[in-house]
Design brief:
The structure is a single chain. By secondary structure, this protein is α/β, with parallel strands linked by helices. The chain contains 11 helices and 17 strands. The protein folds into 2 domains: about 350 residues, Alkaline Phosphatase, subunit A, CATH 3.40.720; about 80 residues, Arylsulfatase, C-terminal domain, CATH 3.30.1120. A hairpin with a 2-residue loop joins strand 15 and strand 16.
């Protein structure tokens, strides 16, 4: 009887041991499969491109066939928001996963990211991705703690600050921490001899073309994967030092004979040039058999501008939205987002999921099998990408603050949008209220009809704004806060 029990115990233990080996082997295989499936990530960011500047978002006068095809082959977001309404804070939000009420960089200054500010690139680099930034940075000057190579990028080629990036024919660009002379001669603006921008008088090398060539080279060199490419283009930003001729482009192409103002020809030609280049980049992925292993995203850092002679109304760059760059109305912060990942993302899809730049860091981290830092404001929208809408978490609200033009705040909460102006002068001033479901163009302020909603949005503004040593509203300065 005892021998029978011992025999039965040995059998049970043997079965358990075998099942354990099978289970562990299965887990290891799952992890291996998961690692093998980690996609390459390409994030392409245009500069000052409006919500209505692409054909797939309603543009009729400017040709963008390649980006329109990207929308047809992937997913188009209709309610995606930039991190801010100008360059630097928008890019800070993108890289750190924080909205402008909490991010370090909240204005268009040259303050650098600190060592403790964790970026998406650092997370992906730690996860084993080869990382590159090509184009415009804006989050740290040469020698500072915020340069790209100290914030998670193995390779950097481009402009470090916004002013330098105004000029499409610069004297030099940066490769990692070294200046690369280009041979372009630049005329300095009067009274600003040390300004890094300027107007080129010897237009030989167009920076955008260099960026695209560098991007293709990086992709070829990184084909083994996984890699992360942040392609931060400067099109269609104006050269602000060139005044009325600031839409710099080597050729006007099909727009040369248009009966349009010259800045509008340049603006359209820049966008179409970018579109062709992105088409070639996607074609390269096909040639290298990387399409199924690579997720490509395209967006813009804020709304359209009225600089360099450009008129955002001429070709309806803002689409049906109100406002533009430097506004917290929809036209200043709602931007295109296209996502393409053949075999994983359903072609021809459209989503009204409400998302923002601070969602990209956790989304990329989840794609890489990594974890986002605790305390970020973003929510991964990977379930939306994979067609798993029922699993997607939603934001209770989105928040922005802006420190120019008297100070501004905005909140998006469901269908409601609240905007407060002149915060420096009137920190408790009136909040404009718009119902975006019935009034996308924010034409009708209905604050007096919904005082309870206005009060709720005011509480969110107070809650979301945190004290910053670098950027303070006027009332905080007056109180010594």
């Amino acid at each position: 009887m005892r021998q029978s029990k011992r025999w039965l115990l040995r059998v049970i233990l043997s079965v358990i041991s075998g099942l354990t080996v099978v289970f562990l082997s299965s887990c290891q295989n799952d992890l291996a499969d998961s690692a093998a499936e980690r996609p390459n990530i390409i994030y392409i960011l245009a500069d000052d491109l409006g919500y209505g500047d692409l054909g797939c978002y309603g543009q009729e006068a400017i040709g963008t066939p390649h980006l329109d095809r990207m929308a047809a082959e992937g997913l188009r977001f209709t309610q995606h928001y930039a991190g801010s309404t100008v360059c630097a804070p928008s890019r800070c939000s993108l890289m750190t996963g924080l909205h402008t009420g909490r991010a370090l960089i909240r204005g268009n200054s040259r303050d650098p990211l600190r060592p403790e500010d964790v970026t998406a690139a650092e997370i992906l680099q730690e996860a084993g991705y080869r990382t590159a930034l090509i184009g415009k940075w804006g989050l740290g000057e040469a020698g500072s703690t915020g340069i790209p190579n100290r914030k998670g990028f193995d390779y950097f080629f481009g402009y470090l600050n916004q002013a330098h990036a105004h000029n499409y024919y610069p004297e030099f660009l940066w490769r990692n921490e070294e200046k690369v002379p280009l041979g372009n001669l630049v005329e300095r603006p009067a009274g600003r001899p040390h300004h890094p921008g300027g107007v080129s008088t010897n237009k030989a090398v167009y920076s955008h073309d260099l960026f695209m060539a560098e991007a293709e080279r990086f992709i070829r060199d990184s084909a083994e994967g996984p890699f992360f490419l942040y392609l931060a283009l400067t099109i269609p930003h104006a050269n602000n030092e060139a005044r009325e001729k600031g839409m710099e482009v080597p050729e006007l192409g099909v727009y040369a004979e248009k009966d349009w103002p010259e800045p509008q020809k340049g603006h359209a030609a820049m966008i179409s040039r970018m579109d062709r280049c992105i088409g070639r980049l996607i074609q390269l992925l096909g040639e290298l058999k990387l399409e199924g292993r690579t997720i490509v995203m395209f967006s813009s850092d804020n709304g359209p501008h009225r600089e360099g002679g450009n008129d955002p109304d001429f070709n309806h760059s803002r689409g049906p939205l109100r406002g533009m760059k430097r506004d917290l109305y929809e036209g200043g912060i709602r931007v295109p987002l296209l996502v393409r990942w053949p075999g994983r993302i359903r072609a021809g899809g459209q989503t009204d999921h409400v998302s923002a730049f601070w969602d990209l860091l956790p989304t990329w981290a989840e794609l890489a099998g990594a974890s986002a830092p605790a305390g970020v404001d973003g929510i991964s929208f990977l379930p939306i990408l994979l067609g798993q809408e029922s699993k997607q978490k939603q934001h209770a609200w989105l928040y922005w603050e802006f420190f120019e033009q008297g100070g501004k705040q905005a909140v998006r909460m469901g269908r409601w949008k609240g905007v407060r102006l002149e915060v420096d002068r009137r920190p408790d001033g009136p909040i404009e209220l718009y119902d975006l479901e019935t009034d996308l163009g924010e034409r009708h302020n209905i604050a007096d009809q919904h005082p309870e909603i206005v009060e709720q949005l005011g509480r969110i503004m107070e809650q979301a704004h945190t004290r910053s040593e670098l950027y303070r509203f006027g009332y905080e300065k007056a109180k010594g806060l």
